[in-house]
Write a structure and sequence with these properties.
Belongs to the LysR transcriptional regulatory family. This protein is α/β, with parallel strands linked by helices. It contains ten helices and twelve strands. It has three domains: 82 residues, Arc Repressor Mutant, subunit A, CATH 1.10.10; 88 residues, 3-Layer(aba) Sandwich (D-Maltodextrin-Binding Protein, domain 2); 104 residues, D-Maltodextrin-Binding Protein, domain 2.
């Protein structure tokens, strides 16, 4: 359970409405839903129910509430104590990330770090994986967020943050759509539409298929997420991508997500080459 999840939980309890909680936290409602869903999946409970006034805690949520209040209170005490050790001089930290890693709430991580180290000025831009690696390698960035499996450079430090698993996204009327999980090889006869914007990620998705004994038949085009939604919804083709990325696709009610069996995964990681105090402080916060 993360600090962000606890903050989301407490803010919903305070406002009694998802929309007001999202506004207060400065995040999209879809991101807020994902945070609560992650808590529910981790604890195997349902936390909130809807009522006429908004939302209310379930019985399990009532049990959970005092523990979250205590843990978050201890976190705030820790933040207060750590302020004594804050980097005193003005420092900067230049970060980069892949275009699609913003869906992992990286900005929230940076925001929370800023409460501990308010004197560090942080900037972040998005890149393709090969561009990100070049920017860090040449010293134009201090560090970045990428998938460990896409790394080709031997960084000074790689800190795993979160594993993300491969899923298939398809039309809700597809013959496999009602399954909880499938073998990737069951899609070998399907028409694929794959995101090609990041060459290393694209090659990794191809490798997942090749390891299962087939080369996907695919539309030969570089497309955006909205175009991908339209193609899957109307043409009957399928795609494979990481679960966190897929959650944006399945906001379209015509699409469903099906887990791929076999532990096919990528690991979101923090990579760094610079050894400045600001960079080390951020790495220590993540670890």
């Amino acid at each position: 359970m993360t600090v962000t999840q606890m903050r989301c939980f407490l803010t919903i309890c305070e406002t009694k409405r998802y929309s007001e909680a999202a506004d207060k936290l400065g995040m999209m409602q879809s991101t807020l839903f994902k945070q609560i869903k992650a808590m529910e999946d981790e604890l195997f409970i349902k936390i909130f129910d809807k009522d006429k006034k908004g939302v209310k805690l379930t019985g399990a949520g009532e049990v959970l509430y005092p523990y979250i209040v205590f843990m978050y209170g201890e976190y705030e005490k820790m933040i207060g104590r750590l302020q004594e050790y804050s980097i005193s001089e003005n420092a900067s930290l230049q970060l980069g990330s892949l275009y699609f890693t913003k869906q992992y709430d990286i900005l929230q991580i940076i925001k929370e770090f800023g409460t501990i180290q308010p004197n560090i000025k942080i900037s972040m831009d998005e890149y393709r994986s090969n561009e990100l690696e070049e920017m860090i390698r040449t010293g134009k960035l201090d560090a970045g967020f990428t998938y460990k499996e896409l790394v080709e450079w031997e960084y000074r430090k790689i800190l795993p943050i979160r594993e993300d698993y491969l899923v298939a996204v398809m039309n809700k009327n597809h013959h496999l759509a009602l399954r909880d999980s499938i073998q990737l090889s069951e899609l070998k006869a399907e028409q694929f539409v794959l995101m090609k914007g990041d060459e290393r990620l694209y090659k990794q998705l191809l490798k997942f298929c090749i390891d299962e004994g087939f080369v996907p038949k695919e539309y030969n085009m570089d497309i955006r997420l909205e175009t991908m939604k339209e193609l899957i919804s109307t043409s009957g083709c399928v795609t494979i991508l990481m679960r966190t990325m897929a959650e944006d696709l399945i906001e379209d009610k015509n699409l469903v997500m099906v887990m791929i069996e076999g532990s096919k995964k990528l690991t979101l990681s923090f990579v760094m080459e610079n050894d400045t105090k600001a960079c080390e402080a951020f790495a220590n916060y993540i670890s």
